[in-house]
Give the backbone structure.
Amino acid sequence: MRERTIASHFARAVLRGAQRHGYDYSDLLQQLGISPELLEEPRARIGPEPFTRLIQALWLALDNEYLGFGKAPSKPGSFAMMCHAVIHCRNLEKALNRGLLFYSLFPDAPRLTLTREDEMIRLSLDDSQLWDPDHFLTEYLLVVWHRFGSWLIGQRIRLEQATFSYPRPEHGAEYDLLFSCALSFSTAKSAAQKSSGAQSSLLFHSRYLNMPLLQDERTLKHFLERSPADLLARPDDGHSLTSQLRRLLSRDSARWPDLDAVATHLHISPQTLRRHLREEGTSFQELKDQLRRDIAIYHLSRNDLPLQQIAEQLGFSEPSAFHRAFKKWTGLTPGAYRAQES
């Protein structure tokens, strides 16, 4: 399955740290082939590759792996050193505790803690002291620690719940791609209304802590070539019905199954499928459109297929229908998007 695209919101959010520190990133965007006009379109999407390169470039430009959102900077290479410190641990519990101890040595680093709740483990982040207006660093740190832990043991750690110290943000629809579990947001309307102890957290079963690490120095070297910059750009291969359908639809996008066929494949009725998707805040058509959008962007950014062929591959009988749909999805026509990416 091709990696899914990233909402332009995340690129705008990551650049706010650079803006705060007075860094002019216009030349950087040009070097990376990221159009400022594309980023200004709220519905626009960018590919995972340029997004990963943007984060890596900003690390170096700002000399800060926290990208300007923490109380104090984190020198580039800090995450890599933490990884080397934990890679020989016996199990995940030892690795996570050693990793969190590493960052606790820096007094102004974001504070993360592991606590037991019966058979569950909660990874909590005190985000009350962060300058994080778009919640980017909160999202980023929780995603990085979840996916780093999953990588260490060679399997996805199933999340039971993700809790956030702030109300559901405007880009909240993207959270299913980041966490793929039950989500809980604060009802506080402002920072002043939040309690000083409010934290964002991830909840997962304690059985994972005893699992041995399956990685070593060799695999770590490959992991660090792109991580953790690329971890936010990877879809979370979750267990929700939405995630299952994305995987199913991605297997053969040349032949789009209808809802009845998918329901039969999943051994449930079409009515039950619709109801479960509504409960997860989406629909079958919305999932298909998201996949079509991402496949279209994949080809448009590579300039490997003419527009008509892309339209046919996505199941559009007329190029004009593809043009209308793509503009509805992204705010740009396919031709305009390709021009921005070239």
